[in-house]
Input
Amino acid sequence: MRYTVFFLLILFVVFSACSHELPSPVPDEGPDNLNRELKLEDFSMPESCAPCHPNHYDEWEGSMHAYAAIDPVFIKMQEHGQKETDKKLDQFCIQCHSPVASKLGHTPAGYRQEDLPPLALKSVSCTSCHSIVSVEEHKNAGAVFDPREGFRGSIPDPVSTPAHKSIYSELFTSSDLCGACHNVVNGRDVIIENTYTEWQSSPAAAAGQQCQDCHMPAYQGQAAVGGPVREVHRHTFVGVDVALIDDFPDREEQARLVTELLRSAAQIDVTAPDSVRAGGFFPLYVTITSLTAGHHLPTGAVADRQMWLAVTITDQATGEIVYQSGHLDANGDLYDRHSEIAPNLDYDLVVFNQQLVGETGDDVFFSWEAFDERTVTIPPLESVTPRYFIRLPGSVQGPLNVTVKLRFRTFPPFLLRMLALDDIAARLPIVDMAEWEGTIAVN
Ligand code: HEC
Ligand code: HEC
Ligand code: HEC
Ligand code: HEC
Ligand code: HEC
Output
């Protein structure tokens, strides 16, 4: 008897400890957007649209919307999350990364990739967007999907086709459509992605500019084979991300477009003295100006992204580096507190991203662990001017070459290593968004 009581007591302690460690990492279900009468077959495969909409298909196929559920980083991160939360994550991640399959119950918590039906692997597919009837909440896939009446879009006067009914919907010309997925909030109301909200108070929104104006540029062409020439829209959805799997279509073209977009997104200006004294100190001011009117820079999955300044000062006489910040360790990581080789070596480091914070104020790296967050990004069209205070060795002869780069990558390597994705970490591209070079005389 005494043993039973003791055992129950232990059970109680263990249980309350467990439930304390994992208080609801995900929100309660959003709007009732799961119409249980619908079947997966009601949402056609993208390949069935291709014969009539070849341009739309070709562009979408190489976009991140076609990559969202087969992205190796997404797969590993979600697997890790399901394990860590004892499957409490459930549909939270996949409801946005492959919405239709998730809403129809084809992606049970802890699903295996090889068990998914073909449409689930099509991620944010054509019908994921073109069956959206309304957006109830601008977060966590808060859209209502129903393709039965037909496909919705922004053509007011579509020519008829036996393939489907075409329905004009103003929602498709508006950021509100995108806002259903481009705002992510976890179960403790911690903001993980905030792009739609940032856009709402942006200069772009004030000027009536929508996500589509920048991410789905208009051109004159056919909306469908045999249809009239009219204003149509790119479906490449260029952002900052490129596919990291080999057999994904249009990788080089997307990489080129991403580089172009990132290089148009910011500029840097540097103020440095014309001449300095060997052994002396001097200040270097770097002004970073966001040229992005639509949202913060960077935006979206900012806990994953890294944008930072790399400053290198070299003595021309000897070729020696006399100062550097924003350089990488042997693992490819910045020398901030996450470097496994020399943590905090680079105390001047300027980096823009989001640090998730755990229950006890510690650093955490995944959205389901977060109780708080600290985000450092640049609001639309605004500038920041970090100052470097540089001490020169007495042996410097000069002149000094100064290079400043604003650099971007989609993941820090240490995060990929945490997910056992070392191979991806090794070939992750870095894009130089802006560069400045100058010379300082030494006297
Ligand atoms: C509300 C919809 C939504 C939810 C919920 C969501 N995501 Fe995402 N996720 C997005 C959007 C939108 C992006 C693109 C943002 C960007 O590129 O900055 C994204 C980007 C990502 C990326 C970066 C992709 C890459 O390869 O660069 C990863 C990884 C990711 N999500 C994993 C997850 C995981 C794991 C979960 C669940 C814990 C999750 N997401 C939940 C919408 C969502
Ligand atoms: C047999 C040919 C055919 C097939 C197959 C087809 N469509 Fe269409 N679709 C058309 C035509 C024709 C139009 C009207 C084009 C125009 O008026 O310029 C159209 C228009 C549209 C529109 C615009 C509606 C509007 O009012 O804005 C959308 C969205 C659309 N189709 C989506 C799809 C999707 C998604 C698929 C695959 C699941 C698909 N279509 C398959 C022929 C087709
Ligand atoms: C005025 C043009 C403009 C508008 C409007 C705009 N964007 Fe962007 N977007 C950009 C530029 C430029 C970048 C690349 C720089 C950056 O990351 O901010 C970008 C990047 C992104 C990224 C990748 C961010 C990352 O760092 O992972 C996502 C996701 C995105 N935009 C979604 C949206 C959504 C959703 C909207 C509407 C709510 C929107 N954008 C409105 C110009 C725009
Ligand atoms: C992320 C959401 C999304 C996805 C995925 C998507 N579309 Fe669209 N599509 C839109 C929006 C939004 C518009 C209207 C853009 C505007 O008016 O600014 C549009 C417009 C269209 C049009 C009307 C002509 C035009 O270009 O304006 C057709 C046809 C179309 N899409 C077909 C497709 C097909 C086929 C696929 C898959 C291969 C697809 N779409 C995937 C959001 C999406
Ligand atoms: C059903 C959910 C959903 C809707 C609706 C949606 N998106 Fe996305 N979007 C995603 C997810 C998930 C990703 C992340 C894919 C990845 O990188 O793995 C993404 C990625 C992107 C990217 C690429 C970001 C990068 O880092 O390269 C852009 C740009 C983008 N979306 C723009 C839009 C625009 C514009 C709209 C509205 C017309 C829209 N999205 C509507 C879910 C959605």
